[in-house]
Amino acid sequence: MNSVRLLRFLAAVGALAFAGRLSAGEAPRPNVLFIMADDYRPELATFGSPAVTPNLARLARRAVQFDRAYAQQAVCNPSRSSLLTGLRPDTLRLWNNGTHFRELRPDVTTLPLHFKQHGYDTRCVGKIFHNWHTKEKGDARSWSAPEFLHYATHGDDGPQVNGPLPPNHATGGIRAYTNVPMCEARDVPDEAYYDGRVAAEAVRVLAEIKARPFFLAVGFWKPHAPFNAPKKYWDLYDRAKLPPLDPRRPAGAPEIAFHDSREILGAGAARVVPTEAQAAEMRHGYFANISYMDAQLGKVLDALDRSGAAGRTIVVFAGDHGYHLGEHGLWAKTSNFELDARVPMMIAVPGTPHGGRRSAALVELLDLFPTLNTLCALPAVPSLEGRSLAPVLADPASAAVKPAAFTQHPRPAYYDREPDKQPRAMGYSVRTARVRYTEWRDWKTGATIARELYEDADEPAETRSLVGEPRFAGAQAEAEKLLRAQFPPSKN
To answer: How far is CA 70 from CA 36, 67, 83, in A?
Structure first.
């Protein structure tokens, strides 16, 4: 790492804080606009995807885009809890959606709480922590004012309109998603659904807090299912021109690597297998959801630009984890495959000379907490397990802060719904510059019961597991060493 570049970058961040003092008549550090999307794999134009995402492209022009960013677990609550506490799921002992992190770590300091404790007005609009189904399960202590639209089920997100409900131009999908169809394409305003209302509230809150130091977290509910973006976003795509679906499993992959896709397909006797047409419609709907979310993001960026605070506001955008759309025969998340583990991530620092640059450094979502501490000159939190990405922001072309990124997931995927509420196995996955290596370990004994290895050049398709192949012996040995250093085999 070029230390001169890092020092220059940090000096520029210091100048940003000084500019804030001059304009506000006090001594604020840089503001933070922290934006999250739900179930969003890196389908955006700047990644070469056919997704129509002009506002993410606009943000990318002033940000450093991280091309190899990874979630710590591919399910909402563990991923978000890890990111927002800066602790890995194993440290939290949290691997499911049904346990609030404060039940396990009641006094843990969250990212927004740390900013609140150091003079920031912290606000939550939308889904930032997990979408607990009751208001009481938010995290009120992290915020300076009550959270907005932060709890509910995704199935509650039915269209709210004045007058008769316009017709659904989609088929409705393979089954009902709680209270609404899986696929819905109605000619309704953006505000008919959650994310339109999230954007409107974020714009309002930004106008309220723009003159004082703020940490504004905006959590969009999309592109998570159901696939029910307003019709105009479906109309952006020709379904026949979207990437074709390859549902084949990777050759040689162990059965434990897969799951039953129950979030989308149902479970047990109620499980269904989508037809080719139904699969194509759901894939179309996912892209429509992306463009709908992107449009709401654009409204928030417009409001930031109008506010006069853009020049002293750091903007972070990230997905909470990836997603499968029939690839590997899987739908939704809860695996260790690349499509579930990899996420879009951008950080825009005002005044940086590196806007529009891309980094191939391996990074993790839990790096965001220490990164924002560095950028805003807040005191360090000793327990954080991530690394500050300030060196990469200062030198996107060549800097790196870690040799690998890690993702994990239990089996059964929803083990907390089993009678003993214990996993039978845990899959630990390491992503190095060359390969993704996964060990599946017996939960009680720590013994390795299955392994996978995929080369970087074959991701995210991951067509064949290469465990034991001589030409990858060195890469596998390196990955095994890194994985076992981070997650030593042990009994639970």
So the answer is: 14, 9, 11
